[in-house]
Amino acid sequence: MGHAEQIYWWDLGRHEGKTWDWYRENFQREVDQILLDINQYKSASKVFGDSTSTYFASPTGWERLSGNEDCDEPRITLASHIRRLRVKGLILVVLPHPTRRLLAEYRASLKSKPSPAQFHQYVEQAINTYKACFAQYSLRQCAYNKTVADSVKISLHEGMYSTYMEDWKRIFPPEQFKVIRFEDYVTNMVPTLQSLYAFLGLPKVDDAQLAVAANPGTKEFRELVRNHNAGGFLPDTIRMLNDFYQPFLNTLGDVM
Length: 256
Fold this sequence. Notes:
Elements: H1 20-25, H2 28-41, H3 78-83, E1 91-95, H4 98-108, H5 116-134, H6 139-143, H7 146-150, H8 161-171, E2 177-181, H9 182-187, H10 189-199, H11 207-213, H12 219-227, H13 235-255
Parallel strand pairs: 1-2
């Protein structure tokens, strides 16, 4: 349950004067509903969470965390701070293929039809910028470099999954961490959702309810799939992105 609004507190808000109480108040409605269930039924089977997508791969704010003074890359990560809450927080990561993730993000940022030629220029510039960084510094240092991220037009860094996954898996034990491939969700919605509900400790959902949740005919689902599709972009652009991301995907397989 809960609203889909992204909070951006752990990586941005807390460094901009927004307090911990402000963050908690964003979820007060959900907390009240759970407390109501507990008072009425002695238990609750509802969950809520912070759906901010940038937390997984954010190059922002780490340099302000205690312990990272004078560091070129983070010793202390955002994951470290979330872990220090000492609650059984569950971390759910949904990963599309990094090329498709970037296509969907680019489409979502536009108010008009995408320009394949312009996007190709953005991709070429971003890849050249990061390759120049890799030639001088470590992959991790470049992935967490906000100056480099701000110098390009697209968030190429967010698809460097293996670099960030190593940090999260080092901090959180396996039982608190679940990764879902977006492609598995799209092609096998029912078993993917069932595994998700089990991970969250929710009661088994009956077939009728599951059919509502796993309905590929909804407008939202069709739009989601369409936004991740490579159709309409230049083949050379897709090839460049796939070649750039392949080493990270290879390493991700080892990390996982």
